[in-house]
Amino acid sequence: MKIYPVILSGGSGTRLWPLSRAVLPKQLLPLVTDKTMLQETALRVTSLPNRRAGDSGLAGFEVMPPLVVCGNEHRFMVAEQLREIGLPPLGILLEPVGRNTAPAVAVAAQYLLAIDPQALMLVLPADHVITDVAAFHQAIAEAALLAADGALATFGIVPTAPETGYGYIRSGAPVSPGAVGCKVERFVEKPDLATAQSFLAAGNYFWNSGMFMFRAERYLGELGQFQPAMLAACETAVRDGYRDLDFCRLEEKAFAACPSDSIDYAVMEHTAHAVVLPAAIGWSDVGSWSALWEVQAGDANGNVVRGDVYLDGVRNCLVRAERRMVAVLGVQDLIVVETDDAILVAHKDQVQRVKQVVDHLKQAGRSEHVQHRKVYRPWGSYEGIDIGERFQVKRITVNPGGKLSLQMHHHRAEHWVVVSGTAQVTCGEKVTLLTENESTYIPIGMTHRLENPGKLPLHLIEVQSGSYLGEDDIVRLEDVYQRA
Fold first, then answer.
1. 430 burial class (0-12, 13-18, 19+ CB within 10 angstroms)?
2. Per-residue pLDDT tens over the stretch 151-185
3. In angstroms, what CA-CA distances link 3 with 6, 50, 59, 143, 189?
4. How would residue 86 be classed by pLDDT, with cut points 50, 70 and 90?
5. In the predicted model, what is the mean pLDDT of residues 185-207?
6. Which residues contact 12 (CB under 8 A, 6 or more apart)?
7. What is the mean pLDDT of residues 313-325?
8. 109-152 tens-digit pLDDT
9. 260-308 pLDDT, tens digit each
10. CA angle, corner 63, sides to 58 and 66, nearest 5?
11. Is the pLDDT of residue 57 over 60?
12. Would I find Transferase among this entry's keywords (predicted)?
C-alpha cells in the first residue's frame, strides 16, 4: 500500500492573535519548537518508516511525499517552508475560497486518484501538536489496515480530562474480534462540563481529532451518496483546474459554488463504514493560548517563556516576547504576548475571548488582525519601520535570486539605500548594480524592478513619498511569480 499524507493548511488565524494573523495563521508559525507547525506536521508523518508486509503483524506500506491543500494567499509561504526542511511536496492545491474540510479532502482525493487508483489517504490538519510520535506512527499503521478494507477511519484521542472544548466520538463494538478499531456509534458536539465528566467516566468516548485515513475512491463514493452537489462541484474544480508555477489552482467558479461543510457533517456522521481508532499520542489542536501553555514544558514555577523576558514572583504564566523586552511581576495564570504592533494580556481562563478582539479590529477597519508589520512575499519580505503624512519607511529583504515584479506607481516616488548585499536595479531603460551604502531614486510613474543577483540576502531601506502610499498603487507589468 502507498500512504499519501494530505495536509490541510487552511485557517484564518484568530484564536492565537496577536501572533496569528489572517495572512500568517498558526500553522505557519513556530509555536512550540523552532519549526513551524506545518513543518512539524510534514516531518512527523514523512518520518514514518516504511514497513514490509508482516512487520509487527501489520500490512506493508510506503509513505509518499505530502499533498498540501492551502489558500491562495499562503501558497508561497507553504512552498518555502517545505523547501526549508528539504521536503518537496507531491503537490500544493490552492483553494480560491475556504469551503471547510469535506471539499478540501474531496479535491485532494480526486488529485490522488489520477496518480494512484488505490491511493490511501492520511488526512492531517497542519496545526496540531503530537508529542508521542512513535505511538502516532503505530496508530497510522493500524489505521492503514482498517482503511485498506474499506473503512473510513478516524483517530479518536484517548481523553485525559473532561474537556469541553472538543467534540467527542462514542465508540461501539470492535470491528472484529481482537481488533483495535471500533465502530462509530455517534459523533457528539462539544459538551458542558458535567456531560464531559460522564464521557470520561464511561470510557468509550474519545476526543474528535479531525484526522482520518481512508481510500480516496471510498471517500468520494460516500461523498457522492450523501453530498452529490459537493462532489460534482469538486470534480469540476479539479478537472478544470490549471497549473500555476509549482501549484495546482482549482477552477475558481466551480469551487466557490461548492457547499461548505466538514467531513464529520458531510460524510462521517452518515456513513456505515466509520471506524474509530483509539490513540493516546499526546495530541492537542492548540486552539487557544492556554492550550499552548499546557503542551509546553514550563520552568520550576510553571511558566512558559519565549523571547527577551524577565519574571519576578510569577507562576503558571505564558509570556512570549517577539520584538521587545517584556517584564512581568507578581502575577499568576496570565497570558502575555508581545508582537511588533499589538500586545495581549489575558487571564488563562479568558483566552476564548480573543476572538472578540479580532471582531473589534475588523469592525473598526484596522489591520492588526490581517498581517504583521513584517509581510512575506515570494521574493522575500518587507517591514514597516515608520509612517507619517506623505512618507513611509520600510526595511526590505530580497532572497538570493529573488526578483520583484517590473512595476510602476502613480502616486509615489521611492528612494532605495542598500544596507548589505547586491541590488540590480532597473529604472526605465537603465540597469545598474548597487552595493552597500549606495542608493538610487525611482521617480513617480517610472517603470522599475529590484533584483538580488547575489548569493546572500539583499537588505535595503526604502523611503516612499507621495500623496498615496497604499500597496494597491502597484501596476505590475511583468512578474515571474504570476501575480495579478
1. exposed
2. 999 999 999 999 998 999 999 999 888 778 999 99
3. 9, 10, 12, 11, 30
4. very high
5. 94
6. 22, 25, 98
7. 97
8. 999 999 999 999 999 999 999 999 999 999 999 999 999 999 99
9. 999 999 999 999 999 999 999 999 999 999 999 999 999 999 999 999 9
10. 145
11. no
12. yes
Q: At what angle do helices 133-148 and 37-46 cross, to 10 degrees?
A: 60
Q: Which three cell numbers stand for residue 275?
A: 471506524
Cα(206)–Cα(292) distance, integer angstroms: 21
Handedness of CA 464, 467, 468, 474 (dihedral sign): negative
Distance between CA atoms of residues 352 and 184, nearest Å: 30
